[in-house]
Amino acid sequence: MRVETSIKDDIITVRLFLEHGMAAQSGCIADAADALFIRELSVRYRGEKVFGAALSPAMSADPFLRFRFRGTGGASLVISWNDSQGADDSYSHEIA
């Protein structure tokens, strides 16, 4: 995972580059049951959830997401996710 942040006028812009295989689907609904993809993504800032997403097999491999929220530097973002095969992980990124 790669995370880039910038701050301007107390607005934090976050760019997430998720390195995940996100199995691309061939269009066949039956294949979706076996697809490997990030199911849920959550981002917390100072303990508060600032972004969340429910993803599906329709996402491309290694997706890029961008969002904004109001805040200041000097704290960490905690990004956590789980995938369709039951694996989960988290990542911390310090906002300067």
Automatic annotation (TrEMBL):
SUPFAM superfamilies in the record: E set domains
InterPro entries given in the database record: Ig-like_fold, Ig_E-set, SoxZ_dom
Residues in Sulphur oxidation protein SoxZ domain copies: 3-92
Pfam families: SoxZ
This protein's name: Sulphur oxidation protein SoxZ domain-containing protein
Organism annotation: Marinobacterium aestuarii
